[in-house]
Design goal:
By secondary structure, the protein is mainly beta. It has one helix and 14 strands, in the order αββββββββββββββ. The radius of gyration is 16 Å and the shape is globular.
């Protein structure tokens, strides 16, 4: 009776286990069914199980779970992807595309691991340090 309860609580916390035990206290979780519209920036780790429509900037680790979706460009220190991205992704260190990852956009990363089944469509630049993103140019105004 108590054994199954303990087992259930351990499996529910395993969603954050991929972030590392010491990092789980400083992880922002965007749950399944949640949609964010606009720019999203976070100074800590992020676990996305929902959707973001807009630019994403994560100062630490970015993890996309099964069924997650980003429509927009992503910049992160490291990333593990199981969801779908429609936009470019720039990772300063390691990028891991897991079996269900789908990326429609360009990839820049220092290192990359691609599991069997993962797909990407776009240019891919791997090696040395990924360059810093160039500052956005302001849109021209019409008079």
């Amino acid at each position: 009776m108590f054994g199954s309860s303990t087992k259930d609580s351990k499996s529910s916390s395993s969603t954050l286990a991929s972030l590392g035990d010491k990092d789980s206290a400083s992880t922002t979780v965007i749950a399944k069914g949640t949609t964010i519209e606009g720019k999203f920036a976070c100074g800590e780790n992020v676990r996305l199980d929902g959707a973001i429509h807009g630019e994403v900037k994560v100062d630490k680790r970015f993890v996309m779970g099964d069924g997650s979706y980003v429509q927009g460009n992503i910049v992160a220190l490291t990333a593990t992807i199981k969801g779908k991205i429609k936009g470019d992704i720039q990772v300063k260190e390691a990028l891991h595309l897991m079996d269900s990852a789908i990326i429609d956009g360009n990839i820049i990363a220092k290192t990359m691991v691609v599991d069997e089944g993962a797909r990407y469509n776009g240019a891919c630049r791997i090696g040395s340090a990924a360059p810093s993103p160039s500052p956005a140019t302001p849109a021209a105004t019409k008079d």
